[in-house]
Amino acid sequence: MKRREFCRTTLAASVAAAYPFMMNAALAQTSVAAVSLDGGEIELEKAAIREFAQQLNGPLLMPGDDQYDYARRVWNGMHDRRPALIARCANTEDVRQAVAFAADRQLLLSVRGGGHSWPGKSVCDGGLMLDLATMNTVTADPATRRAYAQGGALLNGLDTAALQHGLVTTAGVVSHTGVGGFTLGGGFGRLNRKYGLTIDNLVSAELVTADGELRTVSAEQNEDLFWAIRGGGGNFGVATKFEYQLHPFDRNVLSGMILWSIDQAREVLDFYGEWYAGLSDDLYIGPAMFTMPDGTSVIAMEVVYAGDPAAGEKELAPLRKIGRPMDDSVKIQDYMVMQTQEDGTWGHGVRSYAKNGMVKEITPALIDALIESFVPDPRFAFFTHTSGGAVGRVDELATAFPHRNAETMIAVIGGWMDPAQDDESMAIARAWFKQLQPFVGGYYDNIDFDGANSKGRNYGPAYDRLSVIKAQYDPGNLFRLNRNIKPAV
Ligand SMILES: Cc1cc2nc3c(=O)[nH]c(=O)nc-3n(C[C@H](O)[C@H](O)[C@H](O)COP(=O)(O)OP(=O)(O)OC[C@H]3O[C@@H](n4cnc5c(N)ncnc54)[C@H](O)[C@@H]3O)c2cc1C
Question: Is the pTM of this model over 0.90?
Answer without folding.
Answer: yes
